[in-house]
Structures are given as C-alpha cells and as structure tokens.
C-alpha cells in the first residue's frame, strides 16, 4: 500500500484499509474472482459499511455493480439477506431493510436499479468494457497497477462519421519517502510512471493526462518553502521526459507541474503543460482557483492563474484543463465549454475526509451542464512528511495530509460514467469517446439556447463593483 513512513503497529483504521484494498483489488481483476467471498466479507465486518465510517465499501460496490451480472450469475454469488440489506443501506439510506422472502429477486432488482442510477446509461445501455491489447495487460501485471477500460458510444449520424478518441488517465502514489533527496524522488517518479505510460502507448491511447503536481509529493500542506525546489520551467526536466514519450507513442500528454516562471521574477504557478503528439509544447494553463480550506495552503507557494480558460486544439480533439480546486466553481467549467472544449481534464490531489462525497457528483454535473466529456484524476496514497504541522483547527499536529483516494474516472455529457479506478492502487483508466456525443446532447437539451447568458453577464458585471447592492425585495409587513 502506498504509505511512506516507518512501520508502526497497524491501527484499526489501517487494518480496515488493507482489508478494503484487498477487496477492491479482487473486484477489479479481469478474471472475475469470487464476489461471494467479497460480499460476505463486507457483511461480516460492520466497520466496513458506510455506517462504520468507511465509504470504501461503496467504491467496491460501485465496481461490483459494473460486472453486468445475469440473474444466474447473481444467484451464484449466494448473497445473503444481510447482503441485500447492505445494498439498501448504501444506496437508499432511510429505506427499510426488511427484505421480502424472495431475497434473490429483490437483490437483483436493486442491483439493476442502483447500477442505472450510479453509472447512468450511454445511448440506452451501460458503458461497455474494452478488451485491451495483451502488452498493456502484461505491463499492468508486471508493475502492479490497476488497469481499466470502457467505451462511450454516440448515436449514428447521417452526415458525420464517428469521431472516436482514446483517452487515458494515470493516478499514482509517490515513489520514495518524502525524506529522500529531492533529485532521487523526482527520478524515482519518472521511472515509476514510465511503464504506465508505456501501457497507455501499447493500448493505443491518443490523449493522456497525469495527476496534479505529478513530479513531487503534495507538500503544500506543510507550508515549508523548501518544497519549492521541485518547481521547474515549462520546458524543464519533466517536460523533456514527457516529450520523448509523446513522440514515441504519437500521443498528446497533459503534464501538470509546479512551474517556475524565470522570466517573471521566479514566480511559481500550478501549471498544466500540453504536449502535442509530435513532442511539441502546444501551450499551458495555470490553475485558476486556489483553495483556502483545510491543509492545502497552496497560496503559500504559487499564484492564481492568469491564462484564462484556453482550449487546445490537438490532433485528436479540443481539450481543456480544469486543475483540481477549479472543479468546485461552476463558472470555471462553463468558460471552458463556451470556448469549445470537447474534453475537460481535472487533474487533482484531494483527500477523502474533505471532498470524496463531491468527487463523482461535480464531474458528472459539469459534463451534463456543458455537453462535454470530463476526465477526473486524483492521486493515491498517504504521504508522510518529516516535520509535523498543524491545520489551524485546534487539533493536534500531524505529519500527513490524509489519504488521497484515487478513484479516477470519466463522465459523459449524457450523464453516464465509468466505474472508477482503485482508492489505493496506482492505475491507468482508458476510455474510447465518440466526440459526436457532445453536439448530440447540445441538440437534445438546448442548454446553450436556453442559458440566457445576458442575464448573468449583467448580474456579474454589477456584482464585481465595490458599490454592489443585492437585489432583495423585502416583505413590507416583515418588520411591522
């Protein structure tokens, strides 16, 4: 498990995490290990249910739901009455769990309905798995990373052929403890990612995105300035590493780094470098919104972005990058859509206690509201830092930011989405997308035509003025 620290006696929380990691791995394997043992394992340990404070069971259920089980296969799972109650508790809190005698029928109906609600339907059917080439599978097995692949369809059109692009996302933990020399840490993460990028190349990925600040630990929580040493120019060491791989695999690669802007007084930025399939630098985007919550402390290190909302026209489609905290801002998503994005990537570094309940909702909503695909990436693991720090919340000092929960996935404009990668393992998730779906959903819902942008442009132009007064109509009898 990607936790870099000394080896203390495992806590109950760590034991529970290891157990769920094993469960999650078994559900995610392509050879379909016995779900019976998995479900019974969850049943027998109440600490793994949502009522026990862990949503790992939900994520495992999420992937189990994708198995497209038939009634016959479902019956072979030998799911117990408690299993059916677990399904109801997770997905329909507040509903009675007094299951009728025909447990199998109830479970199967619940399974189908929950699957439809959680994953949606793509052109009337579930998102379909892709059988990847053997070399990609071999790399996954050899280097022990999660590998998943799914396909989004669009309706057949008369005047346009399909516009299919294969997209990949990589999530990973750091490669060495944070106490290792910085040069060793960076070199180790390059070597760790190389076989995963090789697997993407072997699978024929056209556009690949890495996680936020992939070249370093997410050390901004510490407020220690020494981590600034990981910053580099846009054409620096990590970009050169990625450029070689982009050329090798004819692949567009999005590389989010901590940028050092030498031409502007060594200013630091949180930047996504967009590298073309010929190894050229197409452009860059700097993070628009910096959090002021929890342990992020990112304003200690870098500035709010000044690049606006650019869309990059690549050999495979029009893409944009909404870095991490920008996903909490609907207007940020909107601006990328207005500029014509077909796929918006959201490379992130976020922890479970803070944001996990919002993780799938925000991405799916953005895809629906803006009629484009959303690709969500989050790092994995728990990163332990040499010097404990406080959070300004009165709680004791600690040496870790929390658990980065991975769960990278794709969302489509028709409200369908893929299952996520593991919460614990490095991984590569791949999706085939027919970009025709973007215009088809614009035609279907007409959001652009009903948006009334002039109303909000006027409102916002007034709101940003220092003498703004809210438009509130008070009841004249309110204070009588």
From TrEMBL:
GO molecular function: beta-ureidopropionase activity
Domain CN hydrolase: from-to ranges: 165-435
Protein origin, superkingdom: Eukaryota
Keywords assigned by UniProt, alphabetized: Hydrolase
The UniProt record lists the keyword Hydrolase: yes
Pathways per UniProt: Amino-acid biosynthesis; beta-alanine biosynthesis
Catalysed conversion reaction: 3-(carbamoylamino)propanoate + H2O + 2 H(+) = beta-alanine + NH4(+) + CO2; 3-(carbamoylamino)-2-methylpropanoate + H2O + 2 H(+) = (R)-3-amino-2-methylpropanoate + NH4(+) + CO2
Record-listed E.C. numbers: 3.5.1.6
Region Disordered, annotated ranges: 1-20
Pfam families xref list: CN_hydrolase (PF00795)
Matching InterPro entries: Aliph_Amidase/BUP, C-N_Hydrolase, C-N_Hydrolase_sf
Any one GO BP annotation for this protein: beta-alanine biosynthetic process via 3-ureidopropionate
Family note: Belongs to the carbon-nitrogen hydrolase superfamily. BUP family.
Protein name: Beta-ureidopropionase
């Amino acid at each position: 498990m990607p936790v870099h620290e000394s080896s203390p006696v495992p806590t109950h929380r760590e034991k529970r995490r290891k157990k769920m990691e094993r469960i999650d791995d078994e559900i995610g394997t392509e050879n379909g290990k016995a779900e019976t043992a998995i479900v019974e394992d969850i049943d027998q340990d109440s600490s793994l249910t949502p009522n026990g404070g862990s949503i790992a069971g939900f994520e495992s259920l999420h992937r189990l739901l994708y198995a497209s089980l038939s009634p016959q296969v479902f019956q072979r799972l030998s799911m117990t009455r408690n299993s059916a109650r677990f399904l109801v508790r997770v997905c329909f809190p507040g509903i009675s769990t007094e299951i009728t005698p025909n447990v199998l029928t109830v479970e199967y109906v619940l399974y189908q309905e929950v699957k439809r609600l959680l994953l949606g339907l793509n052109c009337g059917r579930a998102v379909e798995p892709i059988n990847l080439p053997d070399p990609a599978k071999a790399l996954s097995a050899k280097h022990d990373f999660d590998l998943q692949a799914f396909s989004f369809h669009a309706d057949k059109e008369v005047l346009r052929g399909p516009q299919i692009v294969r997209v990949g996302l990589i999530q990973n933990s750091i490669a060495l403890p944070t106490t290792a020399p910085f040069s060793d840490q960076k070199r180790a993460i390059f070597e760790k990612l190389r076989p995963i990028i090789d697997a993407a190349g072997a699978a024929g990925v056209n556009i690949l995105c890495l996680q936020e600040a992939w070249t370093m630990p997410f050390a901004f929580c510490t407020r220690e300035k020494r981590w600034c040493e990981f910053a580099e120019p846009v054409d620096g060491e990590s970009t050169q590493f990625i450029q070689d791989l982009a050329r090798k695999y004819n692949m567009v690669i999005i590389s989010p780094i901590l940028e050092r802007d030498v031409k502007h007084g060594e200013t630091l930025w949180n930047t996504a470098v967009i590298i073309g399939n010929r190894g050229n630098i197409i452009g860059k985007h700097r993070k628009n919104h910096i959090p002021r919550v929890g342990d992020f402390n990112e304003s200690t290190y870098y500035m709010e972005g000044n690049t606006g909302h650019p869309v990059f026209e690549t050999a495979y489609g029009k893409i944009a990058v909404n870095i991490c905290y920008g996903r909490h801002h609907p207007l940020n998503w909107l601006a990328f859509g207005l500029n014509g994005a077909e796929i918006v990537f959201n490379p992130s570094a976020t922890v479970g206690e803070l944001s996990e309940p919002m993780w799938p909702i925000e991405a799916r909503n953005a895809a629906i509201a803006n009629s484009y695909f959303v690709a969500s990436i989050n790092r994995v693991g728990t990163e332990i830092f040499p010097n404990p720090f406080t959070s300004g919340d009165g709680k004791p000092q600690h040496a870790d930011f929390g658990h980065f929960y991975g769960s990278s996935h794709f969302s489509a404009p028709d409200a369908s989405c893929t299952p996520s990668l593991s919460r614990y393992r490095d991984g590569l998730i791949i999706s085939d997308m027919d970009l025709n779906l973007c215009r088809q959903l614009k035609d279907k819902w007409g959001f652009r035509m009903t948006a009334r942008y002039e109303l909000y442009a006027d409102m916002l132009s007034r709101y940003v003025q220092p003498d703004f007064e809210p438009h509130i109509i008070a009841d004249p009898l309110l204070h009588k």
